[in-house]
């Protein structure tokens, strides 16, 4: 075994190609008989032909859009693995594509999916479902199978909607209703959409948030011949295009909406501006968010709201269940998924002590956060004090805060002036519906560097060198970055129906 002539460089052994796993047991004896290196530890580089193994498809790679939270580092991982493969190929270029270098094999996975389709806008694709239906636009119709499983899971936790569906399906109380909807596209909302159809209505749907759509759920709805126009990471132009498709603008005159189900007021606003005659002939609007209600009140004061509107947000089921308990159970999950930060001991400022603010405070207090509250309503401020939270002015504590969460429903609650006073590493996020609670426009200036560090997480670096973490560009954090309990959506959706 000893050969003193080999001591300055590594030797690449002419190993035979291994055709089966059984041959690997003979590898040790082959090395002993053929190697001239006195110690196996000196075999720094050795090329072996491993037998091909069948690819096993991964569900998340097959169905999940690459920019979902669970696969947010996919591109980075591919680039790292590509570098590793290039390094290996420089040593043994003549070997086949299945060769692996023993000391450089990491967690390489051969079941990588292509990025090509994800780089193409769904508007440029021609997609058709199994029934040759084409009136939809989703990321990929092939995700439908997984989306259907997600919907089935949600149905098990939504007894209110399912009971309503069973009781009223035979009577078809919504027969003749043509509903244009604009909500978050999640498995829970899919149960609502299918319930509306089972009760006799016709629907067309778009997403109210460019980040919160579950692509597999949208595909599952499209597979059932439901006109839906939504996908994750829409541009602003694509967002308004989807809303126009939900209203069937430039479509067949045989289908015009006579009702609107809205979340945030964008669909209502667009219909009033672009289809005034259709808007004035609507039978009614159902709105569930604080932001949308504020917009309806503005329209009413200016004389533009000429039809009935139902304020679901003020219903006891929405206020006492959805706003409180849903946010209570999802705020910690959202922060953990986005930032991986330890919450215990952190100083957290909650702007607003309505039902959403109450839920956030209770949840964060339970994990050891020190909570401060800002509130302009004296009754809510008194409630915060009696619940054991310190009510402060924003300017008093902004320099010492680790996490800022807005939950007011108002606009420009946090401005650039406030953000510049935050400590380096502070986290800024929103639990209200609209992205106007944080003044994003004032932060989108040339002197502030925006860096996308992972999906829905941006680092904002100021001229002074200070860096602040912004979540989901100020949009609603729990629906963009996490999941929500199906039961609470069932309670609210039942009121909407």
Structure explained in plain terms:
- With 497 residues, the protein is of the alpha/beta class.
- It is built from 20 helices and 16 strands.
- It has helices spanning 27-34, 59-63, 74-91, 116-119, 144-156, 159-168, 187-198, 215-223, 236-246, 266-274, 276-280, 290-301, 316-339, 355-366, 378-386, 394-397, 416-421, 440-443, 477-481, 486-496, and strands spanning 47-49, 99-101, 178-183, 202-207, 228-229, 259-262, 284-287, 309-311, 347-351, 370-374, 390-391, 403-406, 427-430, 449-454, 457-461, 467-471.
- The strands form 3 sheets. An 8-stranded mixed sheet has the order 11-10-9-12-13-16-15-14, covered by helices on one side. The chain has a 6-stranded parallel sheet with strand order 5-4-3-6-7-8, with helices on both faces. A two-stranded antiparallel ribbon has the order 1-2.
- Strand 7, helix 12 and strand 8 form a beta-alpha-beta unit.
- Helix 5 (144-156) crosses helix 8 (215-223).
- Mean pLDDT is 80; it is low at 1-13 and 35-116.
